[in-house]
Amino acid sequence: MRATMLRSFAEPLTLETVDDPVCGDDGVVVQVRATGVCRSDWHAWMGHDPSIVLPHVPGHELCGVVAEVGPSVRGWTVGDRVTVPFCCGCGVCEPCRLGETQICDQDFQPGFTAWGSFAEFVALPRADLNLVAVPEGLSDVEAASLGCRFMTAWAALHVHAGVRAGEWVAVHGCGGVGLAALMIAAAAGARVVAVDIDAAKLERARALGAEAVASDDVVGSIRDVTGGGAHVSLDALGHPVTCVNSIDCLRKRGRHAQVGLLLGDSRVVPIPMATVIARELRVFGVHGMAVRHYPAMLSAIAGGSVRPGALVAKTIGLEAASDELASMGSFAQEGVTVITPG
């Protein structure tokens, strides 16, 4: 198969022909039809994730067709169109037994703990637990955009923060996951303040439903426009400044969701715990979403209240993956980029 290989961190990827993946007893091999280029992939490329062993194939936001099925698999057949959470469960550990497969003790992450989807094929384990059927009305490209950013934003707002109609939601960072959060919050009836330093991204945020935007004096601007602070705030970037701003902009008893990864030089953040205590704030870490929450998200998409396809700015081939991934270091992307390997 053709695959985009990472052989040295922070160096260009190479498009190579490598052996096809081997199907496990309880797994499947999926022919990749579309796969997103995510900032998490950029972190992997930079060497921020200690689980990655070189050489490596990145990619974790995928949609494809089942090409091979292991002998122990009962729920899937060749030809089924599927997606998968970026963090797959084992089904045995305590979190998995409680239905929280996204924080599995033995998690499998395509593109991180194993070769991923910047390739023509990818092997996925424990198919009966982890795979999600893609509805007919959802395109391959749209389904790929769900794999990390959209479903993580959904989990942040609906599973953790419990966003309600009429509440103010602040979204710090208008990349793919930030724009997804904005769309999901607006669809829930919330009023959204979008934060970014890029005027074009703020314009896109307004087009997707942001009622207000901010780029300077972020905390003060949010407090002014919301009449005292956001009810819910998300750090959708993953930086000490955006993390602290997200907490500081909350009104009393507000909820902060940390969605952006804090890795590399941003791994340690001086959280203002005095503020958390004084305002009785709630702080949530969000590590993807369990498979059991997909039906609610897919139902909202089918009903038209959220449109993940509107977040996709462009599609590219495997040969362009290296340049696209490198560009994420300067936040050059607007919206979501999806690779179509075929």
From TrEMBL:
InterPro entries: ADH-like_C, ADH-like_N, ADH_Zn_CS, ER, GroES-like_sf, NAD(P)-bd_dom_sf, Zn_alcohol_dh
Enoyl reductase (ER) domain mapped to chain residues: 8-339
Record's protein name: Alcohol dehydrogenase catalytic domain-containing protein
Recorded family membership: Belongs to the zinc-containing alcohol dehydrogenase family.
Protein keywords: Metal-binding, Oxidoreductase, Zinc
Gene3D superfamilies documented for this protein: Medium-chain alcohol dehydrogenases, catalytic domain
Signal peptide segment: none
SUPFAM superfamilies from the UniProt entry: GroES-like (SSF50129), NAD(P)-binding Rossmann-fold domains (SSF51735)
This protein's record includes keyword tRNA processing: no
Single GO MF annotation: oxidoreductase activity
Organism lineage: Bacteria, Bacillati, Actinomycetota, Thermoleophilia, Solirubrobacterales
Cofactor: Zn(2+)
